[in-house]
Design goal:
10 helices, Epimerase_deHydtase, 306 residues, globular, two-stranded parallel ribbon, Rossmann fold, NAD(P)-bd_dom_sf, 7-stranded parallel beta sheet, NAD-dependent epimerase/dehydratase family protein, alpha/beta
Amino acid sequence: MQSKRCVVLGANGFLGCALTPQLLEAGHHVIACDLAREFSSIAPHSRLECLTLDFLDEVAVREAVAGADWVFHLVSTTKPASSNVNMAFDVQTNVVATIHLLEACAAEGVGRVLFASSGGTVYGIPSSLPVREDMPTLPIVSYGLTKLVIERYAELFERQKGLQTVSLRIGNPYGPRHYDPNQGVIPVFMRQIRQGRQLKIWGDGSIIRDYVYVDDVARAFILAARYAGPLRQFNIASGEGRSVRDIVHQLELLNGAPVEVEYVAARGFDIPAIVLDITRAREVLGWHPGVRFEEGLRLTWEAMSL
Protein backbone atom coordinates (compact mmCIF):
# COMPACT_ATOMS: atom_id res chain seq x y z
CA MET A 1 0.00 0.00 0.00
CA GLN A 2 1.17 3.54 -0.74
CA SER A 3 2.74 5.30 2.23
CA LYS A 4 0.37 7.65 4.04
CA ARG A 5 1.08 10.77 6.05
CA CYS A 6 -0.44 9.99 9.46
CA VAL A 7 -1.06 12.31 12.40
CA VAL A 8 -1.52 10.56 15.74
CA LEU A 9 -3.06 12.84 18.37
CA GLY A 10 -2.31 11.44 21.80
CA ALA A 11 0.66 9.49 20.50
CA ASN A 12 2.36 9.20 23.87
CA GLY A 13 -0.72 7.69 25.50
CA PHE A 14 -1.62 4.05 25.91
CA LEU A 15 -3.27 3.57 22.49
CA GLY A 16 -0.83 5.88 20.71
CA CYS A 17 2.22 3.95 21.91
CA ALA A 18 0.76 0.82 20.31
CA LEU A 19 -0.53 2.43 17.11
CA THR A 20 2.51 4.52 16.15
CA PRO A 21 4.96 1.58 15.80
CA GLN A 22 2.44 -0.37 13.72
CA LEU A 23 1.97 2.56 11.35
CA LEU A 24 5.73 2.89 10.95
CA GLU A 25 6.11 -0.84 10.39
CA ALA A 26 3.47 -0.62 7.66
CA GLY A 27 5.63 1.96 5.86
CA HIS A 28 3.76 5.15 6.75
CA HIS A 29 5.11 8.54 7.80
CA VAL A 30 3.92 9.47 11.31
CA ILE A 31 3.63 12.83 13.04
CA ALA A 32 3.28 11.84 16.69
CA CYS A 33 1.53 14.62 18.64
CA ASP A 34 1.18 14.80 22.38
CA LEU A 35 1.20 17.25 25.25
CA ALA A 36 4.22 15.41 26.63
CA ARG A 37 7.60 16.97 25.97
CA GLU A 38 9.36 13.61 25.90
CA PHE A 39 8.38 10.71 23.68
CA SER A 40 10.39 8.08 25.51
CA SER A 41 7.73 5.42 24.89
CA ILE A 42 8.17 5.63 21.11
CA ALA A 43 11.41 4.43 19.52
CA PRO A 44 13.09 6.86 17.10
CA HIS A 45 12.50 6.20 13.41
CA SER A 46 13.43 7.90 10.14
CA ARG A 47 9.74 8.33 9.23
CA LEU A 48 8.71 9.59 12.65
CA GLU A 49 8.26 13.22 13.72
CA CYS A 50 7.45 13.99 17.35
CA LEU A 51 5.54 17.17 18.01
CA THR A 52 4.67 18.64 21.42
CA LEU A 53 1.11 19.87 20.97
CA ASP A 54 -1.79 20.95 23.15
CA PHE A 55 -5.01 19.49 21.73
CA LEU A 56 -6.85 22.63 22.86
CA ASP A 57 -4.60 24.87 20.75
CA GLU A 58 -6.64 25.31 17.57
CA VAL A 59 -3.82 26.89 15.55
CA ALA A 60 -1.29 24.23 16.49
CA VAL A 61 -3.75 21.43 15.70
CA ARG A 62 -4.55 22.88 12.29
CA GLU A 63 -0.86 23.19 11.45
CA ALA A 64 -0.26 19.61 12.56
CA VAL A 65 -3.01 18.04 10.41
CA ALA A 66 -2.21 20.03 7.26
CA GLY A 67 -1.38 17.63 4.45
CA ALA A 68 -2.34 14.50 6.42
CA ASP A 69 -3.95 11.49 4.80
CA TRP A 70 -5.07 9.91 8.06
CA VAL A 71 -5.63 11.61 11.42
CA PHE A 72 -6.02 9.36 14.47
CA HIS A 73 -7.86 11.12 17.30
CA LEU A 74 -6.91 9.27 20.50
CA VAL A 75 -7.13 12.21 22.90
CA SER A 76 -9.45 12.27 25.91
CA THR A 77 -9.13 14.80 28.72
CA THR A 78 -11.44 12.89 31.09
CA LYS A 79 -12.14 9.37 32.34
CA PRO A 80 -15.47 7.64 32.98
CA ALA A 81 -14.98 7.89 36.74
CA SER A 82 -14.30 11.63 36.71
CA SER A 83 -16.33 12.94 33.78
CA ASN A 84 -19.53 13.52 35.78
CA VAL A 85 -17.68 15.72 38.27
CA ASN A 86 -17.30 18.58 35.79
CA MET A 87 -19.46 17.93 32.75
CA ALA A 88 -18.85 21.39 31.28
CA PHE A 89 -15.12 20.71 31.27
CA ASP A 90 -15.76 17.34 29.62
CA VAL A 91 -17.77 18.99 26.84
CA GLN A 92 -15.45 21.96 26.35
CA THR A 93 -12.20 19.99 26.21
CA ASN A 94 -13.47 17.00 24.28
CA VAL A 95 -16.54 17.88 22.20
CA VAL A 96 -15.72 21.51 21.39
CA ALA A 97 -12.04 20.77 20.86
CA THR A 98 -12.91 17.90 18.52
CA ILE A 99 -15.24 20.13 16.51
CA HIS A 100 -12.28 22.46 15.99
CA LEU A 101 -10.21 19.44 14.92
CA LEU A 102 -12.86 18.35 12.42
CA GLU A 103 -13.06 21.89 11.04
CA ALA A 104 -9.29 21.93 10.60
CA CYS A 105 -9.27 18.52 8.92
CA ALA A 106 -12.04 19.53 6.53
CA ALA A 107 -10.28 22.80 5.67
CA GLU A 108 -6.91 21.12 5.16
CA GLY A 109 -8.20 18.30 2.96
CA VAL A 110 -7.45 15.45 5.36
CA GLY A 111 -8.35 12.09 3.86
CA ARG A 112 -9.83 10.40 6.92
CA VAL A 113 -10.28 10.88 10.66
CA LEU A 114 -10.23 7.83 12.92
CA PHE A 115 -11.77 8.42 16.35
CA ALA A 116 -11.24 6.39 19.53
CA SER A 117 -14.76 6.07 20.91
CA SER A 118 -15.84 3.93 23.86
CA GLY A 119 -17.68 0.65 23.52
CA GLY A 120 -17.78 0.40 27.28
CA THR A 121 -19.76 3.60 27.87
CA VAL A 122 -21.69 4.79 24.77
CA TYR A 123 -24.33 2.05 25.09
CA GLY A 124 -25.12 2.60 28.75
CA ILE A 125 -26.81 -0.36 30.47
CA PRO A 126 -27.67 -2.75 27.61
CA SER A 127 -30.95 -4.66 27.47
CA SER A 128 -29.17 -7.73 26.11
CA LEU A 129 -25.64 -8.98 25.39
CA PRO A 130 -23.58 -8.90 23.29
CA VAL A 131 -24.20 -5.33 22.11
CA ARG A 132 -24.30 -4.54 18.40
CA GLU A 133 -23.48 -1.17 16.87
CA ASP A 134 -27.12 -0.63 15.88
CA MET A 135 -28.49 -1.09 19.42
CA PRO A 136 -29.63 1.87 21.59
CA THR A 137 -27.00 4.24 22.96
CA LEU A 138 -27.96 5.62 26.38
CA PRO A 139 -24.77 6.60 28.24
CA ILE A 140 -24.96 6.96 32.02
CA VAL A 141 -21.73 8.97 32.34
CA SER A 142 -20.67 12.20 30.66
CA TYR A 143 -17.61 10.43 29.22
CA GLY A 144 -19.81 8.11 27.16
CA LEU A 145 -22.13 10.93 26.13
CA THR A 146 -19.29 13.10 24.85
CA LYS A 147 -17.89 10.16 22.89
CA LEU A 148 -21.29 9.61 21.32
CA VAL A 149 -21.74 13.30 20.51
CA ILE A 150 -18.32 13.37 18.85
CA GLU A 151 -19.34 10.38 16.71
CA ARG A 152 -22.42 12.30 15.58
CA TYR A 153 -20.45 15.44 14.80
CA ALA A 154 -18.02 13.34 12.77
CA GLU A 155 -20.94 12.02 10.72
CA LEU A 156 -22.26 15.57 10.33
CA PHE A 157 -18.92 16.79 8.98
CA GLU A 158 -18.93 13.91 6.52
CA ARG A 159 -22.40 14.80 5.25
CA GLN A 160 -21.77 18.53 5.07
CA LYS A 161 -18.09 18.77 4.16
CA GLY A 162 -17.17 15.36 2.77
CA LEU A 163 -14.71 14.59 5.57
CA GLN A 164 -14.47 10.80 5.86
CA THR A 165 -14.61 9.51 9.44
CA VAL A 166 -14.70 6.18 11.27
CA SER A 167 -15.27 5.69 15.01
CA LEU A 168 -14.01 2.62 16.83
CA ARG A 169 -16.05 1.73 19.89
CA ILE A 170 -13.31 0.12 21.91
CA GLY A 171 -13.94 -2.28 24.79
CA ASN A 172 -11.55 -2.26 27.75
CA PRO A 173 -8.05 -2.13 26.27
CA TYR A 174 -5.18 -3.57 28.27
CA GLY A 175 -1.54 -4.38 27.68
CA PRO A 176 1.99 -3.04 28.26
CA ARG A 177 2.75 0.68 28.53
CA HIS A 178 -0.45 1.55 30.40
CA TYR A 179 1.17 4.08 32.70
CA ASP A 180 -1.87 5.83 34.21
CA PRO A 181 -1.76 4.76 37.89
CA ASN A 182 -5.51 5.18 38.36
CA GLN A 183 -7.04 3.79 35.17
CA GLY A 184 -7.64 0.25 33.99
CA VAL A 185 -8.40 -2.52 36.46
CA ILE A 186 -5.72 -4.83 35.01
CA PRO A 187 -2.69 -2.50 35.26
CA VAL A 188 -3.89 -1.07 38.59
CA PHE A 189 -4.27 -4.54 40.10
CA MET A 190 -0.94 -5.68 38.66
CA ARG A 191 0.89 -2.74 40.22
CA GLN A 192 -0.78 -3.33 43.57
CA ILE A 193 0.20 -7.00 43.52
CA ARG A 194 3.80 -6.12 42.63
CA GLN A 195 3.85 -3.71 45.56
CA GLY A 196 2.33 -6.25 47.93
CA ARG A 197 -0.78 -4.17 48.42
CA GLN A 198 -4.39 -5.18 48.97
CA LEU A 199 -6.69 -5.05 45.93
CA LYS A 200 -9.75 -2.83 46.25
CA ILE A 201 -12.84 -4.03 44.41
CA TRP A 202 -15.89 -1.80 43.98
CA GLY A 203 -18.98 -3.90 44.65
CA ASP A 204 -18.92 -7.69 44.83
CA GLY A 205 -16.60 -8.31 41.88
CA SER A 206 -19.38 -9.42 39.53
CA ILE A 207 -19.02 -6.49 37.11
CA ILE A 208 -18.31 -7.81 33.62
CA ARG A 209 -16.23 -6.08 30.97
CA ASP A 210 -14.93 -6.94 27.50
CA TYR A 211 -11.12 -6.78 27.48
CA VAL A 212 -9.06 -6.40 24.29
CA TYR A 213 -5.29 -6.38 23.88
CA VAL A 214 -3.95 -2.97 22.90
CA ASP A 215 -1.94 -4.18 19.88
CA ASP A 216 -5.13 -5.67 18.46
CA VAL A 217 -6.82 -2.28 18.88
CA ALA A 218 -3.98 -0.60 17.00
CA ARG A 219 -4.35 -3.08 14.16
CA ALA A 220 -8.08 -2.28 14.00
CA PHE A 221 -7.32 1.43 13.58
CA ILE A 222 -5.13 0.74 10.55
CA LEU A 223 -7.75 -1.53 8.97
CA ALA A 224 -10.40 1.12 9.59
CA ALA A 225 -8.19 3.75 7.95
CA ARG A 226 -8.04 1.61 4.81
CA TYR A 227 -11.78 0.89 4.82
CA ALA A 228 -13.74 2.65 2.09
CA GLY A 229 -17.30 1.47 2.78
CA PRO A 230 -20.35 3.25 4.23
CA LEU A 231 -20.29 2.06 7.87
CA ARG A 232 -19.02 4.54 10.43
CA GLN A 233 -18.94 2.72 13.79
CA PHE A 234 -17.23 -0.55 14.70
CA ASN A 235 -17.06 -2.40 18.00
CA ILE A 236 -13.49 -3.42 18.75
CA ALA A 237 -13.25 -5.91 21.60
CA SER A 238 -12.92 -9.62 22.32
CA GLY A 239 -16.63 -10.42 22.21
CA GLU A 240 -16.22 -12.17 25.57
CA GLY A 241 -17.08 -10.95 29.05
CA ARG A 242 -14.95 -11.38 32.18
CA SER A 243 -15.81 -10.39 35.72
CA VAL A 244 -13.50 -8.62 38.14
CA ARG A 245 -13.34 -11.86 40.14
CA ASP A 246 -12.16 -13.64 36.97
CA ILE A 247 -9.41 -11.04 36.58
CA VAL A 248 -8.26 -11.54 40.17
CA HIS A 249 -8.16 -15.32 39.69
CA GLN A 250 -6.02 -15.01 36.55
CA LEU A 251 -3.66 -12.59 38.29
CA GLU A 252 -3.29 -14.99 41.23
CA LEU A 253 -2.19 -17.65 38.74
CA LEU A 254 0.41 -15.28 37.30
CA ASN A 255 1.55 -14.24 40.75
CA GLY A 256 1.83 -17.82 41.93
CA ALA A 257 0.10 -16.95 45.20
CA PRO A 258 -3.27 -15.68 46.48
CA VAL A 259 -3.82 -11.93 46.77
CA GLU A 260 -5.65 -10.04 49.48
CA VAL A 261 -8.88 -8.36 48.38
CA GLU A 262 -11.04 -5.68 50.00
CA TYR A 263 -14.62 -5.24 48.77
CA VAL A 264 -16.01 -1.71 49.07
CA ALA A 265 -19.33 -0.08 48.16
CA ALA A 266 -20.25 -0.19 44.46
CA ARG A 267 -20.05 2.97 42.38
CA GLY A 268 -23.19 4.38 40.80
CA PHE A 269 -21.64 4.96 37.39
CA ASP A 270 -20.44 1.38 36.84
CA ILE A 271 -22.41 -0.55 34.22
CA PRO A 272 -23.12 -4.07 35.56
CA ALA A 273 -22.09 -5.86 32.37
CA ILE A 274 -20.96 -4.98 28.86
CA VAL A 275 -19.89 -7.37 26.11
CA LEU A 276 -19.55 -6.17 22.53
CA ASP A 277 -20.63 -7.94 19.37
CA ILE A 278 -17.64 -7.79 17.00
CA THR A 279 -19.31 -9.42 13.99
CA ARG A 280 -19.26 -6.19 11.96
CA ALA A 281 -15.51 -5.68 12.47
CA ARG A 282 -14.84 -9.34 11.55
CA GLU A 283 -16.94 -9.34 8.40
CA VAL A 284 -16.35 -5.79 7.13
CA LEU A 285 -12.84 -4.85 8.30
CA GLY A 286 -11.44 -8.37 8.35
CA TRP A 287 -10.38 -7.75 11.95
CA HIS A 288 -10.39 -10.17 14.83
CA PRO A 289 -8.64 -10.19 18.22
CA GLY A 290 -5.35 -11.99 17.73
CA VAL A 291 -4.11 -12.20 21.33
CA ARG A 292 -5.93 -14.53 23.71
CA PHE A 293 -6.76 -13.01 27.08
CA GLU A 294 -4.50 -15.28 29.12
CA GLU A 295 -1.58 -14.62 26.77
CA GLY A 296 -2.22 -10.88 26.83
CA LEU A 297 -2.24 -10.88 30.63
CA ARG A 298 1.05 -12.76 30.68
CA LEU A 299 2.67 -10.31 28.26
CA THR A 300 1.41 -7.37 30.32
CA TRP A 301 2.59 -8.93 33.59
CA GLU A 302 6.05 -9.63 32.19
CA ALA A 303 6.38 -6.14 30.70
CA MET A 304 5.49 -4.59 34.06
CA SER A 305 8.34 -6.52 35.74
CA LEU A 306 11.00 -5.09 33.42
